[in-house]
Amino acid sequence: MKFSREKIRDIYLSDTRLDNLFISEYMPMASGDFLKVYIYAQMCAEHGLEISDELMASQLDIPVSRIGEAWRFWESAGAVKCRRAGNGETSVELLNLREHFYHEPLTDDTPKEAEGFEEEPEDEKISAMYGEIEASLGRSLSSSELRDIAGWIRDWGASSEIITSAVKYSLSRKKDSIKYIGKIVLSWTEKGLNTEEDVKEYIADTDERHSRYRTVMNMLGLSRNPTEFETDIMDRWFDEYGLTMEKIREACARTTGISNPNFNYIDKVIKNWKEKSDEAGTDVNEHHSVSMSVLNRYYDYLREKAEKEAAERLEEVYAKIPEIKEIDGEMSSIGIRLSKALIQKESGEDGRALRERMETLRADRAYLLAENNFDIEYTEIRYACPKCSDTGINEMGGRCECMQKRIREAEIWQKENGIRN
Length: 421
Fold this sequence. Notes:
62% of the residues lie in helices and 3% in strands. It contains 18 helices and three strands. The protein has helices spanning 20-26, 32-46, 53-60, 64-76, 97-102, 112-115, 124-137, 143-156, 160-172, 178-190, 196-219, 228-240, 245-252, 263-280, 292-320, 322-343, 349-371, 403-417; strands spanning 80-85, 90-94, 117-118. It has a three-stranded antiparallel beta sheet with strand order 2-1-3. The longest helix has 29 residues, at 292-320.
């Protein structure tokens, strides 16, 4: 008995076979466009159809350029073999995936010269790269790892030098995972690195930069790693403003007394320095030879000087207007009684009477000063900075805005008095 099957004349009513090996091993690493090209070509190959790149692109609704990219991808993945003729035509052979995945590639006995096609020569650099990677890792690369590395070259444009440098760099940090190495390769490639020398310069700059980051964090008393926001700020200080570490150290010193030192505060200080130096046409890194210790001593000096001068003016007033000394004595006594009542939480008629008496005495005192041609605030302490009372610390607990002026004054004061840092 003889059997036969009716042939299907319309290929779109037929089936196209895909190996499970393709689905499990090859499909996960391909983009949607590349999958479209491969599956469509599989259909054409099973029915012996020829089709141009333009027609395939039209059928799949993708750019014509993606067809060539797809074949380069599948060839690097070991799924097809492409042969290119001198006239630009390409012949694509869809390989037996099971045979090529688990065994040595089959030899092609077809004389290529007779067909007019010539296979592309093997890239010696790439072959040497694989050998160097395996030597560094101390093992052979798996088929999936080979495909990953081929993808770095194809999709990211990574050079063989970058890949071998990334392997060595990762191993120096006790990392031998291909996925980890791939992240390094991608990062370096995106930064435009292409040669081993590029990598060396980048690593040297990165190590120095990270060292600077750690130094600044330590200055602020922070033991954690900086956030991306903080590194962006520091990069601006180093790269855009051109600040030296010494100048940044000076800015960080201004956070003394701040309970929660932060980058925004320091950034405002540095921006102010930069703007003023640009206006004056000077170098922002111009050094002020005053340490925080000397600056604090200068603040002490200003405060003591202001208090001493106020005491001298008070003695002058007492000599000319003895009544004011009596008023000050009574005001001091009332002040003590009011403080005691406040502490003991006492109130009532006595408290109100004391406060009224205090207001009367203040008015009498002001009248006597004015009557004798003294300013009513003549005996008050006159601080150089009323906002911080010559302490350098404002009401918010931060450094007062007078600090920049005090620094310049402290330089002169330090030199005149032979004071050391």
